[in-house]
Structure formats: structure tokens, C-alpha cells
Amino acid sequence: MSKPVILCVDDERVILESLRTQLRTAFGDRYLYETAESAEEALEIIDEFQQDSTEIIVIVSDWLMPRVRGDEFLVQVHQRFPKGLKVMLTGQADEAANLHRCLYKPWHSEELVETIRSGLSSEGS
């Protein structure tokens, strides 16, 4: 059985690399860390993991992205995977996205990690 996945979605590669580094530092080898530069790419990744029966447990998404905004993307994801933890990195969010939390850019690594930890622990209870 493969490791659960944390998927980060942002149209800026430097943000994605920063997120991956921070999450890997905090959580080590417990999870796989995937990135996507658009909502469309993220949905393709989600479909691939679903076909492999690999669970995506956290999705961290930017709000302002080309073509499909992060809140619209997370609404689509929630309709398919209502139990997954969803975190948005921005100051603007739509309640329909069913977010666990919305973080403001620039975020603090500790805040991101604690948000994910608290969300994962509440999902398990």
C-alpha cells in the first residue's frame, strides 16, 4: 500500500517548492508530496492517484490561479472527496470550498504545519 499524499497547487513554481520543502521537513517520509501548477493538472493527478487507490489526504491550494480559481477547484474536489482536508493559501476564500482553514500569503511554516496537523487529527477522531 502506498503512502497517503499531500497535494499542493499553485501557479508559481517557487511557492510549490517552498511548500514541498516545508512539509517534508515537518512530516518527513510519512507522506508523498505532489505538486501541480494548475487546477486542471491537479485534477489529472487526483484521477491518477484514485485509479491507483492512493489516498490524497490534504490539498493545499492557491486562490488566484489562471482559468480556474482555487476556491472553484476545491469545491470540485470536495464534491468528489468530501473527507479530504482542504487548505487555501490566500486572503480571499469562498465558504462553498469547505475549507479546513485559509492561510494568508506569505504564510509561516509553523502555521501551515499546525493547520495540517490539526486537520488530520480532527479527521481521525
Give average pLDDT, whole number. 89
**Could you say which overall geometry the principal axes of the C-alpha atoms support?**
globular
Structural class based on helices, strands and sheet pairing: alpha/beta
CATH topology: Rossmann fold
Helix amount, in percent? 40-55%
Fraction of residues in β-strands:
15-25%
The major sheet is characterized as:
5 strands, parallel
**What is the CATH homologous superfamily assignment?**
Response regulator
Structurally, how many domains make up the residues? 1
Known CATH architecture: 3-Layer(aba) Sandwich
| Radius of gyration, whole Å | 13 Å
CATH hierarchy, class: Alpha Beta
Number of strands: 5
Q: Going across the major beta sheet, what is the strand order? A: 2-1-3-4-5
How far is the N terminus from the C terminus? 23 Å
